[in-house]
Amino acid sequence: MLFDYKFMRAPKDIVKDMYFGTKAVIQTFSLPYSDTEDLLYEAYDNIKANIDNCYIVKLFGQIAAHYMFRDDGDVAVLSDVYVYRNFRSHGVGTAIIRRCISDTEKPIVAYIHRTNISAMSLFKKHHFVITKEKDRLCRMYLANGNITPKKSVRK
């Protein structure tokens, strides 16, 4: 079943909602507590500073997800992806990734918590590969324009 996703720039007043979504992810996948507090401050400042690069996805007239997608020189960065609980398993994450792929010709980088198995699987499904692991984060990379896997040829 295909859904009618509506993508739009996030309104300025969504900073708190984006922060709480990001906070939920950080608190779920981060340890120890002192590190978590630093990440939370950094996340809030990052969202606030980059609000012009933040987007929402509406489904059935309600906000289903939010994310940040920004140009960072040679790459585009997809971050702060949060799909609201009631909208999970509706293809929203896939729609966000596909939208980002179509919005840039640059390679796309995403940072995913290593223990966030569902997010890791989603990005791998869309041909992102892990290029770096540090602490709890994995840097995942998609060489845009090469999104279909190459078939191996047997001789």
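[next item in queue]
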Amino acid sequence: MTYNMNDVVAYFSDRLKKYGANDERSLGWSKNKQEVRFKQLFRFLNPGGKEKRETLLDIGCGFADMYAFIEKNANHSNIDYWGMDIVQEFIDIAGKNYPEKLDQLLCGNFLECDERKKYDYCIASGIFCVYESEEQNYEFIKKAMTKALNMSNIGIAMNFLSDKIDYRTSEKDFHASPEKILTLSYGLSRNVILDNSIMPFEFCVTIFKDENFDKDTTIFNYAEAFCKE
């Protein structure tokens, strides 16, 4: 059985009606940790921190809060931001918040995107939190990770609620197994980082597209500069 996107739209539309525009609870989050999540997602990819201007697709962009985070962080300022969400109301609000990005805020199902359109980075925060069934959720995660990596030039980062928890806040929340997510990640690249070092009940996976390495040093090519620091 396929993951039901209509259920996802209904879930977030109901939350929007309950909590209103620009409230992170409408996006399924709480406790004012949006910026912490963005920092963790950017931690290893470091998008926009290089001389060359880079492109980034924010999958499930919500109110485009990631764009605001980028704009106020000089370390990530060299980014051409694009946002996509399946919920039209979120895109409408994001467009009002950031009219200068109106043409780069897209409504649609990410899994149906044309893979010929490439971004340097594809990043997703909070898109895996709605529970359907174990089978459906992991099928959706695998498809989304594969699609994102195919559409990226450099890499992807995605976050998850962890199943290593003391209690569940809602039966509708999906808590992923870090072990299963790591296995899915290694099916796409050898160059993988699972980071559970910031928040105990949430984790982030970063996958680099380039998994080439020096056969003499057995160090990933991208990490050569890091090793010489």
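[queue empty]
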